[in-house]
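Blinded run. Sample ID left blank on purpose so nobody reads anything into the name before looking at the predicted structure. Input follows.
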Amino acid sequence: MDFTSLASDYLSWVEGRRKRNTYIYKRSTINRFLDFYHGRLPVNEITQEIIETYLQNEIAKRTAKAVNNDLLELSILFNWAVKRGLMSSNPSRPIENYAADAYVRYVPPAEDISAARLVAKPEERRIFDTLYYTAARLSEILELTWEDVNFDHQVVRLWTSKRKGGNREPRYISMHKELQKTLQAAWEARDRHSPYVFTNPKDGKQYTRHTEFIRLLFKRLCERAKIKKPFTAHCIRHHVASRFADSRKATHRQIQQYLGHMNLRTTEIYLHEMSVDRDIVKAFDDPDENAQATTSK
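Blinded prediction complete.
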């Protein structure tokens, strides 16, 4: 079996068991490897050196993080092949990641969030505000159906696939009054033939990340509002999480449940990366220290 056949079998397996976005991401990674070697490699002749040659070529064009992601995806593919007896071992296992800058979560300032909301058109604003008042992932909002919205109990059910094996799992969040207004406006403007809260008016189907309206949504808003550092849908999630933490009105467990993290540790890491110790600077205001400084003069 050559790598082209192996890749085809693997992607067919992924397509039947994982979300569309996952499939597209994995396909892109594999296609880069195929393009580099033209797919003519017998799978049992793929060595560590062959993979490293590909990675060295990529590191000259892309970031270390992106290349490390390619290495991870290739390793997952080779492990899949080993489990099925299609390869004797995983040739990527000994390869170390490239040194990469730590990922820094960008938290847009409140004024940029407000500026983008102000320039949004009605449908854009409804999507924006639903993201804001749920702190949800974009995919969770695009999959939201009217069955998931309970106006009587003021509860929204969100579904996440960020679980082992891509399994979907629901979580329930309380509806803020502004979210209720937003969803009621969406209900009045709804496509009566679609079960989804947000439907593409061009074809009556569910929006996806790849729909042009969604793909360019935040680029459009940031340009329209003349925001110097553009942000994405996921940055809204960062902003809301930061607000929760700074308010000190919610426990880490409450924030975990609201964000839909499976483990509390994930939430703690998430918040730690965005946190600033605002209490330590109060030491500058210590009255005894100020008195000593005055005396020394």
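Unblinding after everyone has recorded impressions. The CA atoms of residues 256 and 266 lie 8 Å apart.
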